[in-house]
Structures are given as C-alpha cells and as structure tokens.
Amino acid sequence: MDQERSQRVLLWLVALGFFMQTLDATIVNTALPAMAASLGESPLRMQSVVVAYSLTMAIVIPATGWMADRFGTRRVYIGAIVLFVLGSVLCALSGSLTMLVSARVVQGVGGALLLPVGRLVVLRTFPRERFLQAMSFVAIPGLVGPLIGPTLGGWLVEAASWHWIFLINLPVGLVGVLATLRFMPQPPAAERVRFDVGGYLMLAFGMAALSLALDGLSSLGLRQASVLVLMIFGLASLAAYWLHAARKPRPLFSPRLFGIGSLRIGLLGNLFSRLGSSCMPFLIPLLLQVTMGYSPAQAGMMMLPVALASMSVKRVATPLIVRHGYRRVLVVNTGLIGLTMASFAFSSPQQPLLFSVLQLAAFGAVNSLQFTAMNTLTLKDLEPAMASSGNSLLSMVQMLAMGMGVAAAGAVLAAFTEFFGAGQTLQAFRATFGSMALITVASAGIFWQLDAADSRAVPSRPETDPPEAG
C-alpha cells in the first residue's frame, strides 16, 4: 500500500475512535429514564452514570502522553479500544446502578485514551504543513457523534432496549482493533520521561473528591458532614499539587502555563461556564420524558435542533471574534447562554412544538459559539513547546467541568424535588434550570478580566477547536 493511501486510512481510523468517544458521551442521556426503570432507580438520580464517564476521562487524560511514550502509540490505542469495548459490554450486562457506574469507569478509561493518543499518532505521522488539514478531517466525526447520539439512543431504547446503546460499540471496536493492527505505524521509541506519580495522584484525588462531593449531595446519599470532608480534602489535594508543581523540574502541568493571560482566563472561564451549561444535555431529555410526556425517541429527536444549530454557527464564530474581540464576545454570549438556559424554567407540556424547537436551537447556537471562543482563547498564545501540555490541560478541565456540572445539576434537582414535594417535579426542574443559568452568568465576570492584548484575535494564525464535550 502506498504511503498516501496508508495515511488516509490512518485518518479514518483515528476519526473512528473519536466518533466512538463522542457518541458515547451523548447517547446515554436520552436513555437514562429507561435505564432507571430497568434498574429500579429514580430517573432523577441517574447523573452518576454521566459523571463517572466524564470524571474518569478527566483523571486519565493527564497520563495519556506518558503512556503513549512508554508503551507505544499503537499498543496504547489498541488497549484503548479494547477497554472501551469491554466497558461497553459490562455496561450492557449491568443489573444494578453500582455495576453500571463501575462499567462506565472502565469505558471512560478507554475513551480518555482514544482521542489524545490518536491525535499524537497524527502529529507524528503527518508533516507540520499537513497537520491542521489532517486534524480538521479527524474532528468531523466529533461533530457527528453528538448530532446523532441522542436520537440514536432514543430510537434504540424503543426499538430494542437500552442495552443496545452500548452493544453497538462491539462491531465498531472490532473493526478498529483490526484496522489498528493493519494500518497504524509503530513509531520509533520516544524519549522516556520519569512520570510525576506524586503530582498525578494529588491532582487525580483532588478532582475525584470534589466531583464525588457534589454527586454525594444527591445520588450517593452522603450526609452533609461527609460532603464537607470530601470537599476539604479535594481542595487541599489540589493546593498540594500546585505547590508540588512549582518545585518540580518536569511536572504534569507547569505553573508557567498560567503566566499566559489568555490561557489562565480561558481555563477558568471554561471551568465555571461549563459548570452551568454542561448540565443541559443531561437535564433536557429528562425534562422532556419525565414531565412532558415525550417518548425516548421523541426526546432524542428534540435534541437535533441543538446539534444542527451548533454546527451551523461555526461559520460565523471566527468573523465575530475577529471583529469584536474575545472579551466582548464572551461576556455578551455568556449572558445569552444564561438567558436561554433560564427560558427552560418556563417549560410546560402545553407549550407549542415550534417554541421548543426555537428554544433548543437558540441554546445550541450560543453554546457552540461559547465553546469555540473559549477554546481558541485558551490555546491561541501558546508557544509550540507548551502546546501539547496546554491542550491536555484544557481537555482535562473540559471533562472535569462536564462531570461536575452534571453532578451539581443532579444535586440541585434533588434538593428542589425534596423542597417542592414528589408531585411537583416540573417545578423542581424549572428551579434547577434557573439556578444553573445563574451559575453560567456568573462566569461572565471571569471573561471581563481579559485585557486588550489577550482579547485580540489573530486571524492570520490558524485556530482550531479541541474536541468539545457536552
């Protein structure tokens, strides 16, 4: 096989892994009520299924680069697919919520390795002048996955059962393993760097403790004292990592990264903005099925306006940012996201279908613009030597915020359900949407801190979005 064809097949292989990962990040949301009924759980307490996957990805991402260098990209990529498929099978076989959450952890480990290692393979295979074009091709399935995920999940629940949203990964994974063995090159061994085990454990424990503390307010049934202890330990662990990284010559993420104003504000904005908005793919299908009488397939179809508007707005994102700058775009758009989220507080079973479609499309459009602006702001001023570390840090923050956002929404929903009473579920949802909208709007204050230099877009320099979660 000639080199050109081999490289083309390699791109399809990496794109396949990206598609598997992004599809499973969204396909579960529509099926949560059906899972809850099958497992004997409340649909309002199923957020741990989403949180486990996102949090595991956030924890594993910092180790992906070292693992690829230590064990080889091809070997790690095959292992990622095998773990992802194994986790999918375990999810389908789960007979309890605890088993399902544990299986999602296994699946999350595989998912965390798929994209970073695939990106690394492309980086090492393609010359610099073709890398942007190659990664743009790989990114397309990442947009298609969230587009069809909710609809496919709803259809599978009705046509077969919720187990098939995981079992469809088996044939895809088998093709991926065989194609990896056949077409993925085995690059020369990279320089082995000593892994910062201590720093990694502090960082991982800190992220896990904070996320579990939020989730413990609702689905885990932890008492307030336990939640408080978990939060304190989590914050102490993250503070210890920061002090540790400041004195280590080669930490996981150098504190020098935070000397870059655009990256510092971009990361903090990503974290707090997504804490609010990332709960929407979890809350909306629940709202539609639990309180408004939609079937799983109908709820999945209702998520199409979000995905279509998200893809459509990509065309205008760059011209808007170039014309108005990051500061103005992000401050105004953060407010618009809050308003569209708050509009769901007026949802009712009697509202016209057209209103719901326009409401969902509006949220998808402003949310997509937010992702594009936040991601490019975070990475635009990184030097080549820091690009890989900065991109991994951004991916980690995105997944962490997604998990914490869903956990926070679940805790808020549980609190309002208890406050209003079991018969007032719609009121609990309305209050939850309003609360999460306020959290999102609060993040506008972070973007307000951008100075003129950091806010300026650089149109002459190619800017690409890293994969978006949620």
From TrEMBL:
UniProt keywords, alphabetically: Cell membrane, Membrane, Transmembrane, Transmembrane helix, Transport
Transmembrane segments: 49-69, 76-99, 105-122, 134-156, 162-181, 193-213, 225-244, 329-347, 393-416, 428-448
Location of the Major facilitator superfamily (MFS) profile domain: 10-455
Signal peptide positions on this chain: none
InterPro entries, A to Z: EmrB-like (IPR004638), MFS (IPR011701), MFS_dom (IPR020846), MFS_trans_sf (IPR036259)
Topological category with respect to the lipid bilayer: Multi-pass membrane protein
Record organism: Pelomonas cellulosilytica
Gene: mdtD
Domain of life: Bacteria
Entry-linked CDD domains: MFS_LmrB_MDR_like (cd17503)
Record bears the keyword Cell membrane: yes
Entry protein name: Multidrug transporter subunit MdtD
Classification via Gene3D superfamilies: MFS general substrate transporter like domains (1.20.1250.20), Multidrug resistance protein D (1.20.1720.10)
Protein's cellular compartments: Cell membrane
